């Protein structure tokens, strides 16, 4: 395997792909969202238990490549227990980081597992899939309040 591919499949990505955080269907969740990329076939359902302005419990389930699954797992783990405003900032931080547009520090060291995407842009959509879906939802929710 080339060094570029090795860096792409960082240990954090391998861990979250093999043992994803809160990877289960929760049909009784307060809300659910679908993160879907019809071009590559990645699809995850995001299950959200939330109150007026807090993400209390998060789960996800579905299928996709190692990068999209690991990225979704990290997102679920990172955003759980955060306010909508905090979650918006964290989602924006992750997306800016993987697009090599971050001014400032990365929110979580786990985000750095996706550093190779800054130069291997073909897989950006995989890593960004659930984050973009969650960010759109959060922005919409905060506008309604």
Compact overview of the structure:
With 145 residues, the chain is an alpha+beta fold.
Low-confidence stretches: 1-5
Q: Tell me about the biggest sheet?
A: 3 strands, antiparallel
Overall strand count: 3
| SSE arrangement, N to C | HHEEEHHH
* Straight-line N-to-C gap: 50 Å
User: Could you say how many structural domains there are in total?
Assistant: 1
How much helix is in the residues?
Answer: 40-55%
CATH domain topology: Sufe protein. Chain: A
Q: State the strand order across the main sheet.
A: 1-2-3
Approximate strand percentage: 15-25%
Q: What is the CATH C-level name?
A: Alpha Beta
- Report the structural category: alpha+beta
Describe the structure.
The protein has 145 residues and is α+β, with helices and mostly antiparallel strands. It has a single domain (3-144), classed as Sufe protein. Chain: A, CATH 3.90.1010.10. Helix content is 44%, strand content 16%. It is built from 5 helices and 3 strands. The chain has helices at residues 3-8, 11-18, 66-79, 84-98, 124-144, and strands at 31-36, 43-50, 55-63. Strands 1-2-3 form a 3-stranded antiparallel beta sheet, with helices on one face. Strand 1 (31-36) and strand 2 form a beta hairpin. The termini are far apart. Residues 1-5 have low confidence and may be disordered.
SSE inventory with pairings:
Layout: H1 3-8, H2 11-18, E1 31-36, E2 43-50, E3 55-63, H3 66-79, H4 84-98, H5 124-144
Antiparallel strand pairs: 1-2, 2-3
Helix pairs in contact: 2-3, 3-5, 4-5
